């Protein structure tokens, strides 16, 4: 069917030449939609013998044909890739709309939580050196779980140092033994990070002298403060002070991963707001159960102040939140907290009265 004939049909010129054609019945009114379907079918399908199913499919395609709409995307040579990307976006949106609390059972969530707590001991202690295969099996952990392995490491090192001071009655060696056990459990990551951070500050590459100074100076300060703590207090009081200092420093240092860019090579992980709030609540309650209220507020305020100063410095100088930098912040906060506890415990008992009475009943400390 030609275009001129269709045009004449729409103009109402339906008369035919009766001189050359036989008499026919009057022409019925034409359906414009049927004409367009016929045109589309004649234009886009060859005149071949088709089965009934194929004819039906062609008629459906012709009915859906829109002559004034061009799908430029289908004309693209990368149409298949574009379709796959669009389907992938749809699938990602469907997956993101799923509520995890409805799909994961409570028992499974609790099991995964304790699993990552165990994985924290392999991530933040030297257990991964002795059990590498088991460390890979447990995988990564939450950044907020850093405080627990440091608390256990500090408690073990402080208890061993307290036993040495209690049985040998020589406080001169207590700080050295405590530092030895602490490094044996936590490693030298903080000292390596301190050397790297000093290189960033001085804008020089860290050499052997820098690494030596980064190990020597904090160690001397560490031993001096611990010896003074064990000299002025009971041995097990000194162990408790050291364990709490390691826990608080690790908790506040790990919170740096909340608002600092991650290192793509040695990422520490990003802490969520929920993790920050839960960690802050647990640390505050635990600290107030061990120390008196005024002492707990003092050391918590000091740790928060140092955390803000270190975080400001990292953001100002574009320092990434790698494992070494987080461990450096933990070491700095720990030394400051130990010095603060030394000053607070010079003339007064800073432990909670109930805890002090319990330790005195067990003959671990002398009742004043």
TrEMBL record:
Residues 1-31 are annotated as: Disordered. The keyword Transmembrane applies. The chain crosses the membrane at residues 108-127, 147-166, 173-191, 211-231, 238-258, 278-306, 326-346. Keywords: Membrane, Transmembrane, Transmembrane helix. It comes from the Bacteria. This is Uncharacterized protein.
């Amino acid at each position: 069917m030609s275009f001129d004939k269709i045009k004449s049909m729409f103009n109402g010129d339906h008369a035919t030449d009766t001189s050359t054609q036989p008499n026919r019945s009057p022409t019925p009114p034409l359906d414009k939609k049927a004409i367009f379907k016929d045109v589309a079918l004649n234009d886009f399908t060859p005149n071949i013998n088709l089965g009934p199913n194929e004819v039906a499919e062609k008629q459906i395609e012709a009915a859906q044909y829109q002559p004034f709409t061009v799908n430029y995307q289908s004309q693209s040579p990368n149409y298949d890739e574009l379709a796959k990307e669009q389907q992938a976006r749809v699938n990602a949106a469907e997956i993101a709309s799923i509520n995890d609390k409805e799909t994961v059972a409570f028992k499974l969530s609790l099991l995964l939580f304790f699993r990552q707590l165990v994985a924290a001991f392999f991530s933040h202690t030297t257990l991964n050196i002795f059990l590498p295969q088991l460390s890979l099996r447990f995988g990564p952990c939450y950044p907020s779980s850093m405080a627990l392995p440091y608390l256990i490491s500090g408690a073990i090192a402080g208890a061993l140092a307290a036993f040495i001071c209690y049985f040998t009655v020589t406080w001169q060696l207590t700080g050295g033994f405590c530092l030895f056990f602490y490094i044996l459990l936590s490693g030298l990551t903080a000292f390596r990070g301190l050397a790297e951070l000093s290189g960033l500050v001085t804008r020089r590459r860290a050499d052997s002298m820098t690494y030596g100074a980064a190990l020597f100076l904090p160690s001397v300060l560490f031993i001096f403060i611990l010896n003074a703590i064990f000299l002025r207090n009971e041995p097990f009081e000194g162990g408790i002070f050291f364990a709490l200092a390691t826990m608080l420093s690790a908790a506040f240092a790990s919170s740096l991963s909340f608002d600092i860019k991650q290192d793509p090579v040695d990422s520490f992980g990003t802490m969520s707001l929920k993790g920050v709030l839960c960690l802050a609540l647990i640390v505050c309650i635990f600290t107030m159960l061990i120390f008196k209220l005024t002492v707990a507020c003092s050391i918590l305020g000091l740790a928060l102040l140092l955390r803000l100063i270190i975080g400001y410095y990292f953001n100002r100088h574009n320092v990434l939140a790698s494992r070494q930098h987080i461990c450096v912040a933990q070491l700095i906060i720990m030394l400051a907290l130990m010095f603060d506890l030394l000053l607070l415990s010079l003339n007064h008992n800073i432990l909670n009265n109930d805890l002090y009475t319990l330790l005195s009943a067990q003959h671990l400390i002398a009742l004043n």
